Amino acid sequence: DARGYKWVRWRVWLCRVLALLTGGLLALLFYWRPRLGVLARGSPCPLAMADVLLIQQDSGNKQHVVKVHTEEMEEGLGELDDNESRDTVQLYQQDQKTLLRYYILDGLRYVWLDRKESFVRVILNEDWTCQDLHGFQKGLSPQEQIFRRVYGSNLIDVPVKSYIQLLFEEVLNPFYIFQLASIILWMSDHYYYYAVCIIVISLISIGVSLYEIRKQSVTLHNMARLVVDVKIRKSSGEQIVSSVDLVPGDCVLIPAEGLLLPCDAALLSGECLVNESMLTESVPVLKTPLPAGDQRYNSETERRYTLFCGTQVIQGKGGGLEGSPAVAVVTSTFFTAKGNLVSSILYPQDSDFRFNRDASKFLLFLGVICMGTIYSILLFIKYNDIFVRSLDIVTIVVPPALPAAITTATIYAQKRLKNLNVFCISPPRINISGKVSVFCFDKTGTLTEDGLDVWGIMEGNSVGFSELVPDPSLLHPGPMLSALACCHTLTLLHGNPVGDPLELKMVESTGWTLDEPLGNRHTTDSEFGGHRILAMMNPPSQKHTTCVQALAIVRRFAFSSALQRMSVVTVTPGRQSVVAFLKGSPEMVASLCKEETPAQFTTTLSKFSKDGLRVLALGYKPIALDMDLNTIQEEVEKDLHFLGLLMMKNLVKTETPGVINMLKLACLRTIMVTDNILTAVNVAKNCGMIGSDERVIFVKASPHTGLYQSGYNYHLAINGKSFAALSDYFPEELPKVLMRTTVFARMAPNQKTQLVKELRKLYRVGMCGDGANDCGALRAADVGISLSEAEASVASPFTSKIQNISCVPLLIREGRCSLVTSFSLFRYVAMYSLIQFCSVLILYTMRTNLADLQFLFFDLVLVTVLAIVMGKGGPSNALHTSRPPASLWSLPVLGSLLIHTLLIILGQTGVILFTRAQDYVPLNGTTPGENNWPNIEDTSLFAVSGFQYIFMAVVVTKAHPHKKPLYHNWFLILLVLFSGLMIWLVMYPLPFVRVLLSLYNVEDMSFKFVLVGFSALNFFTCLLMEQMLIDLGLLNSLRLLRGRRQSKKPYKRLDSQLSESSSWPPLNQTLLPSHNIVRLLS
Fold it and tell me: How far apart are CA 378 and CA 852, in angstroms?
């Protein structure tokens, strides 16, 4: 939602004059609230004429103010092709000049399109097909390159601001403006020591902040900026250019020694071995050429053909005349995968977390308490310092350090996670992880081991399956053995095969060896009918006879999660035969084969899957010798002959059952998102997601029919096809199915993302995966953890170098600890302000105040140190069944603050009344505060309030069950030391200390003991109230007075409905939606 505004000259000049007259306050207001500046200086206008835009984001109430830029383009563009002008931006003529109107938001460029009458994000042509990309191999003309400059430079340039600019932005922060106003107020009130100390601390804080911001900016700038020289093919020939000048459609030549990719690109010819550890994969990945077809190109669905920015091409093979593969540049700058990573760090998503919202509201609540200022005004109505006293109250009641204090816990948690090899690029998500109710897991590589061992092979045909062969090397020569040896995307790196661990095990079990052509490629090709050879598969030497020949792989179609298969085309020496081999999920392979799958196919597959085996099917197809081997994938992968099944044992990681059990004991629901549904159910039982005594209901749905199998204490299991049908045709049933489903099988990457989004409508959702085909789901989750070697991954906010799911309870424990600590810090800083507020108001009634160094002692020595150390406590070793609260506007939090404030007031008032009853010289109320120092009233309140600051830190600090006890932290030692310090200051202060702090010389030891006793009584009373009303839940019992209400949490409401419903799950009956029928059978 964007609204346009045009600057009005007289309004602009009026605002400038008013800014001068107000001493810059108006300009400061516009700096903090840019929207007000736009409304004051501009008038609404059509977007096509706007100088500035107000943009409302879909995700909430956040508004952006962006300036519209006008850029003159190079002339001589001429008339563009209809398709070109339709699919990219249109430029318009103004004053005989070609102008481009655009704005930049979050690093992305949005340009004005006349035909759409709106600003549109500049992205790759959405209508480009794979065939269109292949057309770019000829290179772009100079005219086309000039036109594509609209996409901007191919550079992820993270700005590094100067120290002067950073200083300006930091100083204008509301926190420091408030500090500056407070310092001026304190100086005018003769609080020189305190003001000077705050100035020094603020300067140090600003300096450290500037250094850290600058350091992080430089680090991110160096990580993001990538400028290399690349060779591109143009219509006029080849040319070496800077990567900054690349535009979509440029044809880049990859040298054999590899290249650090400066852009996202689709591989059009040849093969590339790529290290993608920065993104997802920890093992080198072989990229194969993009098939030419009419389908639209998408980098996510065509990952196996896409080279991503920031990844390292280890080696390039084949393709051009000089052996360099050609690629078409697809996207640039922030549109690349690396750009998404940088963008997610620079512009993190706003986390709609209740704790953060409530903290801001509470600051306003404390501001309302400033109505106590009215009380002070009434007291001083006949004096001259009314205004100063009132402002002083404001600086006490509204703690400017509150927002910073509650982030302390997150900073400590992030540091602890980093020490445990869990890295975070979005710190606010740490607190959110403490509220996660459901965690989804990918199976392979996450719950189970990456590597698989070949368990056996069963050949099959229309008659049936043969006997199980445990070792592929024992197979007789034939298509099955050839398929196992050739159907892969392995390649050689320094003489060793690298690639998918599954394929490595498969090829290794056959005994065949991988070789790649060297030297004169055309000589090697001539032995195989003139085809360019990608790889040679040689049988074991003892089998290398006329019956078992070497096979040359001449075409590869890499594995696709969406297609659930991969295939290769092979040629025998002399091109005696050409055969295509295919492997993939059994259901997919069977659907591509002729009507000759074994009759026992379903039962056999079910048997092996229930045993927890990873089952793949293989097929083959003889290809006519005169067929063009560059044909599209669909032509190769149809009308296949079924070969048989390959079974591989995928062991559950040793850590998995323990972690799943820990999560279940903590009442955290676990979900598996994986491959074959029966295999998944077996793994779910092995790792403890499904109990041995619990039954599983398999859900099958389509636009017309659906099936359930009955059971009680049940878990639902559903595949991707049925999930899609439920989403599209039965949306009213989908939440109910989600509530009870533990296994989601055969889910495409986009379905995983959709699943997480649907779950988020019910829960706070976590997702853990290896980042290979679940990047979208990891990013869509509230908390996503990618198991990767990289410290920062494009896949998710959290990246774990721990290659098992033990990082999940670790993160949840840290999240809960951080959330509980944030609550404690919030309550402590709020109580600190209220304690000081009460002290100052009481002393104001006696025409005095706390001394300068007394404020300094409380604020810097006691409160600051206690708050810093309070946040350092680590998480408990176990996950509790309950989750910490996230709402500050709850009865326990507000009730405890109110009760403790009343007890604080009673304690301070009681001490003052007791003090005034003593036989001491009364305070002279006709003179200002500093002339009354030292006085016994101030000294008494100093003693009691000092103890209150210390013991309130104990009262509000929560440990069990989400944090380690206090004795595990320096916090307890600090409490003892500070308590001893206060007792010493009250009972036996040294003369110079007494003078320094302006304390009254009390010689009566019994009076001093009474002060300490008052403080102790106040402490135990507050602690007792906290234990009884908050910890034991007596305050929560007041909710019973309002009667039982329905839970606000969607999943609890739905769970209650399903538990009370006798018709769910609906078994042996037919559901009749408005436009479809689903039959549910047991």
Answer: 24
Strands (E), 601-746: 613-623, 641-649, 669-674, 695-701, 706-707, 714-719, 741-745
> Are the C-beta atoms of 751 and 776 separated by less than 8 Å?
no
Where among 801, 824, 852 does a domain terminate?
Answer: 801
Does any domain span residue 981?
Answer: yes
Name the least confident of 113-122, 802-811, 853-862, 1003-1012.
Answer: 113-122
Helices (H), 538-600: 586-592
Alpha-carbon distance of 656 to 672, in angstroms, equals: 12
What residues make up the domain containing 787?
A: 433-449+653-801
Express each pLDDT in 390-400 by its tens digit: 677 777 776 65
Q: In angstroms, how far is CA 706 from the centroid of its own chain?
A: 36
Task: Give the CATH number, domain containing residue 616.
Answer: 3.40.1110.10
Do both 895 and 753 map to the same domain?
A: no
Residue 364 lies in a domain: yes
Ramachandran angles phi, psi of 73, nearest 5°: -90, 160
**Mind listing the pLDDT tens digit for each residue in 926-958?**
565 566 778 888 899 999 999 999 999 999 988
Q: Is 1034 contained in some domain?
A: yes
Averaged pLDDT for residues 563-582 = 85
Q: From the candidates 189, 250, 392, 442, which is the catalytic residue?
A: 442
Task: Kindly state whether residues 946 and 892 are assigned to the same domain.
Answer: yes
The reply to whether 235 and 276 lie within a common domain is yes
% of the chain residues with pLDDT over 70: 81
What CATH number has the domain bearing residue 265? 2.70.150.10
* Whether residue 909 sits in one domain with residue 871: yes
Tell which of 317, 346, 375 closes a domain.
346
d(CA 201, CA 213): 18
For residue 878, report the phi and psi dihedrals to the nearest 5 degrees.
-125, 155
- Does residue 1074 fall inside a structural domain? no
The percentage of the chain sitting over the pLDDT mark of 90, rounded to a whole number, equals 18
Residue 61 has which token pair?
Answer: 């109430």
Report the pLDDT value the prediction gives residue 617, as an integer from 0 to 100: 92
pLDDT, position 549: 81
Cis before 934? omega within 30: yes
Instruction: Decide: helix, strand or coil at residue 80.
Output: coil
Amino acid at 1071: L
Q: What is the mean pLDDT of the chain?
A: 80
For residue 16, the surrounding DSSP H or E stretch is helix 9-21
- 699 shares its domain with 778: yes
Distance (Å, rounded) from C-alpha 880 to C-alpha 871? 20
- Is there a contact between 679 and 672 (Cβ–Cβ < 8 Å)? no
**Cα first-last separation, the chain:** 50
342 phi, psi to nearest 5 deg? -65, -40
pLDDT score for 1072: 55
| Per-residue tokens: 271 | 């093969």
Instruction: Say yes or no: 716 and 671 in one domain.
Output: yes
- What's the maximum distance between 2 C-alpha atoms anywhere in the chain? 119
The mean pLDDT of 416-429, rounded to a whole number, is 88
| Residues 496, 439 share a domain | no
- Among 840, 859, 835, 934, residue whose Cα is nearest residue 194: 859
Whether 234 and 211 share a structural domain: no
For residue range 446-460, what is the model confidence (pLDDT) as tens digits?
888 876 788 899 988
What is the C-alpha separation between 127 and 282, in angstroms, rounded? 33
pLDDT at 847: 78
> Is residue 1081's pLDDT more than 50?
no
- CA 268 to chain CA centroid, Å, is 33
Residue 586: CA count within 13 A, CB half-sphere: 26
In this structure, which amino acid lies at residue 842? I
Residue 1030's Cβ-side half-sphere holds a number of Cα atoms within 13 Å equal to 22
Q: Which of the four pLDDT bands, split at 50, 70 and 90, describes residue 203? A: confident
**Catalytic residue flag (residue 442):** yes
- The CATH number for 963's domain is 1.20.1110.10
Domains held by the chain: number: 6
Q: What is the pLDDT of residue 1057?
A: 81
